[in-house]
Amino acid sequence: MDKKRLRPAKVGTLLLGKGTGVGMIVILCLLGLRAPLFFDIANIMTILKQGSVLTMIALGLTAVLIGGGFDMGAGALVQLTCNLTAGLLIAGTGTAAALTSGIAVGIGVGAVNAFLVIVIKIPTFVATLGTMFIMQGITSWYNGGKALTINSIPGFAMLGQGRIAIIPVIFLIVIAVCILMNYFFKHTKTGLRMYATGENPAAARLRGLNTRRYLLLSYVISGVILGFTGVLQCSYNYGASAITSGMDFLIQALSAAYLGSTFSKTGELSVIGTVISGMFIAALSNGLIINGISNQQISGVLGVILILSILLTVIKKREIGQVTIF
């Protein structure tokens, strides 16, 4: 009798623990059944390439979320550094200088966000919303409302357009960043302390951790990743678009980060989960387009994914007595 009563709980735990991965596989299979071209090897490589910039943004956002912060301007920062990189290359600056400048701008923005949140004590949502608008304004002023197109620069083009065998170089970069981040957050003292700070700041302070230091570090690490991502996007697009896409990037990156956290039994943010979810969102968008769904409808689907992923995270955190997400 007791065993029968336990079955629903076990089923619920299974769905929360394994349901995300199973659901992803089922959805992709359904898309492939309706459009066999979806599983063509060339299309799969295209998905890996298209999803890499999104996944990198999601990794940058995951870094700041792990430390207990939040960043509304993640997409805007990528767009800013993408435009700056394109402008520098058009002006004749080399690849190394453009890459260094992009990362430096990312670190600077991350430090400013941390200053506003930690020192001035502005709520993270408000502070990063403000810097998002500032970055959008700087980007529009810098490009003059026009796309910045660069000529093919072999070394630089390799970052976003190159392939090793059939695998896109930009996807290999994502995997390398994922491995480094996962090792840092899971196997180093600093990374584990950042997790502790983000999960429960009050408890972390009671244990003697300098939560302000780890929150600052999370914003800086995020800035490095997002600044580098802007450089990759510039290489991927052969320049920078004048169209504002920061908010679209943000919604997709948030969806990937929180959907990735549902792979954990406790709803813990996961670097590997973020990468899987980022590529799933890219595959989903690609599959929906192949099946005749418009971009406007895809935005609605991504919004639903974001709500459901946050809902699942809240359910899991409630089971351990923690319901705060950000």
Overview of the structural elements:
The radius of gyration is 20 Å and the shape is globular. The strands form two sheets. A two-stranded antiparallel sheet has the order 1-4. It has a two-stranded antiparallel ribbon with strand order 2-3. 43% of the residues are buried. It has 13 helices and four strands. It is an all-alpha fold.
Please sum up the structure shown.
The chain has 326 residues and is mostly helical. The protein has 13 helices and four strands. Helix 1 crosses helix 12 and helix 2 crosses helix 12 (271-290).
Helix percentage range: over 70%
Distance between the termini: 41 Å
Number of helices: 13
The SSE string, one letter per element, is HHHHHEHEEHHHHEHHH
What quaternary form is this?
single chain
Structural class assignment: mainly alpha
- Approximate shape: globular
Give Rg in angstroms: 20 Å
Describe the strand arrangement of the main beta sheet, using strand numbers. Answer: 1-4
Strand content: under 5%
Q: How many β-strand runs?
A: 4
The overall average pLDDT, rounded, is 86
List unreliable stretches of 5+ residues. 1-6, 8-15
| Largest sheet features | 2 strands, antiparallel
